[in-house]
């Protein structure tokens, strides 16, 4: 199964760093703003909802520029065909949580009602955002959420496995199960 995931959120919330941690298991302190979009790939094995065994899910993770004007200009092209949303906010910047509704709704206007996973990133730093605020936002979309850290790797793997599992369960109409090991990685 091959699925497109849109990673959305304001600039400097750590989207690119989360992908780098997920795909390459690396972290870089330098901030490099994403211009346009970048697509990374990784294959995850999850329980196959249609039969006993594993299903390989190839995640095509679209890292989209976090500037608000981007969503208005290129929304159709970049969000079309998305099967899931990973919405990222920064625990040190409360305004990034508030803007996630706009990002999520923007994707859903193009892609329809797709699974959402909310990530509250930079959990390794002093928080200005209460976890309950993140939990309430996730609940609005029937979403899972995790506090993550691209720097330490905290919950990065599990959140991508969760969205892959939710998408496969949606397509196969079966209850969600636990993700299995990640098998390969590649970045483009």
Low-confidence stretches: 175-188
The CATH topology label is: Rossmann fold
User: Shape, please?
Assistant: globular
CATH H-level homologous superfamily name? P-loop containing nucleotide triphosphate hydrolases
The chain-level structural class is alpha/beta
Supply the number of helical segments: 6
- In which range does the helix fraction lie? 25-40%
Fraction of residues in β-strands: 25-35%
Main sheet, how many strands, which sense, barrel?
7 strands, mixed
Radius of gyration from the alpha-carbon trace, in angstroms: 15 Å
Q: How many separate domains?
A: 1
Instruction: Estimate the mean pLDDT confidence.
Output: 84
What is the second-level CATH architecture? 3-Layer(aba) Sandwich
Q: So what's the CATH class? A: Alpha Beta
H/E topology pattern: EHEEHEHHEHEHE
Question: Could you give the count of β-strands?
Answer: 7
Could you explain how this protein is built, in words?
With 188 residues, this protein is of the alpha/beta class. The protein has a single domain (2-187), classed as P-loop containing nucleotide triphosphate hydrolases (Rossmann fold), CATH 3.40.50.300. Helix content is 35%, strand content 30%. The protein is built from six helices and seven strands, in the order βαββαβααβαβαβ. It has helices spanning 15-24, 68-79, 94-98, 100-111, 131-140, 156-172; strands spanning 2-8, 37-47, 54-64, 82-90, 116-121, 144-147, 179-187. The protein has a seven-stranded mixed sheet, sandwiched between helices. α5 links the parallel β5 and β6. The two termini are 19 Å apart. Mean pLDDT is 84; it is low at 175-188.
């Amino acid at each position: 199964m091959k699925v497109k995931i849109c990673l959305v959120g304001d600039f400097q919330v750590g989207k690119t760093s989360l992908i780098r941690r997920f795909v390459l298991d690396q972290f870089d302190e330098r901030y490099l703003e994403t211009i346009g979009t970048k697509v990374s790939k990784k294959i995850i094995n999850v329980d196959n909802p249609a039969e006993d065994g594993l299903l390989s899910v190839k995640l095509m993770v679209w890292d989209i520029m976090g500037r608000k004007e981007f969503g208005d200009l290129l929304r159709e092209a970049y969000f079309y065909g998305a099967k899931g949303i990973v919405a990222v906010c920064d625990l040190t910047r409360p305004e990034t949580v508030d803007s996630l509704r706009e990002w999520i709704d923007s994707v859903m206007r193009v892609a329809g009602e797709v699974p959402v996973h909310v990530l509250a990133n930079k959990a390794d730093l002093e928080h200005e955002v209460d976890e309950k605020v993140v939990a309430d936002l996730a609940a609005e979309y029937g979403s899972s959420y995790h506090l993550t850290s691209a720097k330490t790797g905290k919950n990065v793997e599990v959140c991508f496995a969760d969205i892959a599992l939710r998408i496969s369960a949606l397509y196969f109409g079966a209850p969600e199960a636990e993700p299995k090991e990640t098998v390969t990685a590649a970045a483009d």
